[in-house]
Write the C-alpha cells for this entry.
Amino acid sequence: MITPTSINLNKKRNTLTVSFERVNYPLSSEFLRVLSPSAEVQGHKPEDAVLQLNKENVLIQNVRPMGNYAVVLHFDDGHDTGIYSWPYLHHLAIDQERLWREYLQKVSQRLTSK
C-alpha cells in the first residue's frame, strides 16, 4: 500500500498538500470536501451519491490521523465523517484534474436541468 510521506494543511492557501513518492500534491479544501469518501456524500451505492454544491468557501479546520492508514478531515461546515485512506488520497492526488472536471460537469448538468 502506498503511504504519504507528508501531509500538510496550509490554512492561508486553503489546501492540504499530500506527498507521495517525493511528489507534492496540493488539494483544495473544496475538492476534498466535494469528493469526501463518506457515505453521506458517496452513498452506499453510486446512484445514492449526493452532489455537493456551494462548498467553494469551505475550510479544513483539523486533520486527524486514523490509525496508520488514513486521516479524517474536519471541515468548518460540520462535515467530519469522511475517512480519507492512503489509497483514496493517492487516487485524489494523481487523478485530481479528471475528478475535478467530472465534478464540474455534474454541477453544470444539475444547474442546466433546473
Notes: The domain at 6-112 is CATH 3.30.2020.30 (NE0471 N-terminal domain-like). The chain has four helices and six strands.
